[in-house]
């Protein structure tokens, strides 16, 4: 064999040996390129708002670009299905609210993904109560006064929701069911908070339960009248507005909560790195302050606790859906 030929073979063998002996060294550390957080709703809503706050903090912690991509449609299921099909490498993440675990309860026959098994829970980062608001031209000053009107002439009133299966939708359905007019008072479905709130301000519909991020500016401007909030205690942004429990609905406590997921089978080391970054974000004073001013409460749960919380919430939502007889038309 010629010397040049032998040298070439020795070089090739050495290259193969080094590649096999040091696979870890050849892999760049995560993240080595931009990370995308898919938000399955339109820009400007509560989910989008919290996601963008978190993305800014993750970008600082991970030292890598983190962008938010809106993939709206089908009550969030289009974006969720996209993430479920994505590679579990940590570069495609998913941020959504409680509607993620509500959708399977409503769309069992048509949903294109498994909300539990097709995703890796990473962290829960926030929760927020809803504002129960009416058009200010409606002459009511309390939940009790609205209840009386609904019972007297239910056909005259319409509730509205910004998304089928959202926390606001379930809250409205729960309320109407408990009042006893769930069959008589319709809940109109809108594609997003903006058109729903505009129609409520315009007097075309009667009431809404909606996250503070989208409703609070209208309440502060006097364009909507807040009757109650759905949290366990009064919100400091609306100190004069009672809770639903204070209004006589003893077990009425409802939140829209927000969390970060990835596709199923995300490597544990990447999950832990993202979880640590999310925890760090929630612990920072400016993140807490910004969330609070938007009407949210910073609320961190790690991957294990978030998974258990999801299971418990799924059971609770299933009970609300069955009691209120919410069905897909």
From TrEMBL:
Transmembrane segments: none annotated. Residues 1-26 form the signal peptide. InterPro entries: BUG, Bug_dom1. Pfam families: TctC. Keywords: Receptor, Signal. Belongs to the UPF0065 (bug) family. This is Tripartite-type tricarboxylate transporter receptor subunit TctC. It comes from Paracandidimonas soli. The lineage of its organism: Bacteria, Pseudomonadati, Pseudomonadota, Betaproteobacteria, Burkholderiales.
